[in-house]
Write a structure and sequence with these properties.
alpha+beta, Porin
Length: 347
């Protein structure tokens, strides 16, 4: 009988602080200063709000072993969880009351690998805050202050009553605020729990092509990595030059304002891009993601539905691959478009 490994996003009730609607009566900076406890996405991953001032914000993320992918490394898209938060909150700190934003585009350039066990910090700076558009830029650094990634974001600004305000996807309302009696203990947060999942043994990578490895994972012959058990992300298909993966929109992905954070969509797209590139690798070959750009087309809700990212390689040279991806909602409508490149590594 197959042993069912725990899926933290599914098996543990969502916890974390969601601000109530009265926060919209405040300026962006005042609302941010109300955040005292971690929202669901912070309780899931360990992401911590370090603080904000006018035009700046910072978030830190412990790179736990839960972020490990099949090859044993940390996907570059994991950095987007901290970067998207810092870039968005830097802009939010400049917004007046009854004004919101949604991320329209985010780009990241990866400069060095992220080490499991380290802590990365994203520093965001608002470069422009206009009537309808905002721009932010920032750096992701490791605990030694070394630059890990550079990132930028363009955001759409709108008033709550504006006809141009985006309508949220899905049908779910934001997760309800929860309160527990003093002393109540419902166990460690997900990222602090014993690890599930495993990396694929090096001998498997050297004995199978990239597409064969993905097929074996889908069939259950090879293990899925820890990040699958934390977030629910899993490969769903692969052919030569194309691949797809999916992620459930659980309540665990919520920000303090109740909706799934865009950084998770970047992470899903990043993994789809990497999987598509992986399908072109021969036995023993490797790759390393270089950059990603994501255009967000419509918001989504944490309603338990599934997002699927479908990627295909559009250029495959001797040292570089360029890949595109489309993120599709459960209703079949596109949620985001992504482009990324990866360096190809020999045996």
């Amino acid at each position: 009988m197959m042993i069912r490994e725990p899926a933290l996003w599914r098996d543990i009730p969502v916890r974390g602080e969601i601000l109530d609607a009265s926060a919209r009566e405040l300026s962006g900076l005042a609302a941010l200063r109300l955040v005292r406890s971690q929202p669901p996405m912070g309780r899931l991953t360990g992401l911590t709000f370090d603080g904000a001032d006018e035009g700046t914000a910072a978030f830190s993320l412990p790179v736990s072993a839960w972020f490990e992918w099949s090859h044993g490394g940390v996907p570059g898209g994991v950095l987007a969880l901290a970067a998207d938060a810092a870039l968005g909150c830097a802009l939010q700190s400049l917004l007046p009351a009854h004004t919101q934003y949604t991320t329209a585009e985010m780009s990241m350039t990866y400069l060095r690998p992220t080490r499991i066990g380290s802590v990365i910090t994203a520093h965001g700076r608002a470069l422009h805050s206009g009537r309808t558009m905002g721009l932010s830029a920032g750096e992701v650094v490791d605990e030694d202050g070394k630059l890990v990634a550079y990132t930028t974001s363009r955001m759409r600004i709108f008033g709550e009553a504006s006809a141009s305000a985006p309508s949220r996807g899905g049908t779910a309302t934001p997760p309800a605020r929860t309160s527990r009696p003093a002393g109540f203990d419902d166990g460690p947060d997900p990222y602090l729990r014993p690890l599930s999942g495993a990396r694929i043994d090096k001998s498997e990578f050297s004995s199978r092509s990239g597409v064969e490895i993905i097929h074996a994972q889908i069939r259950g012959e090879l293990p899925l990595p820890p990040i699958h058990h934390l977030l629910g992300i899993a490969p769903t298909g692969a052919t030569l030059g194309a691949a797809s993966c999916a992620m459930p929109l659980s309540g665990w992905l919520a920000t303090p304002f109740g909706w799934p954070q865009g950084g998770f969509i970047v992470l899903l797209a990043d993994l789809a891009l990497a999987l598509a590139t992986q399908t072109t690798l021969a036995k023993g070959e490797g790759m390393a993601s270089v950059d990603i750009k994501v255009n967000f087309l419509r918001p989504v809700a944490g309603d338990g539905s599934t997002l699927e990212a479908r990627a295909k390689v559009v250029h495959r040279g001797r040292s570089l691959a360029v890949t595109t991806a489309e993120v599709i909602g459960a209703d079949g409508r596109p949620v985001a478009l992504a482009t990324g490149s990866a360096a190809l590594l020999g045996t």
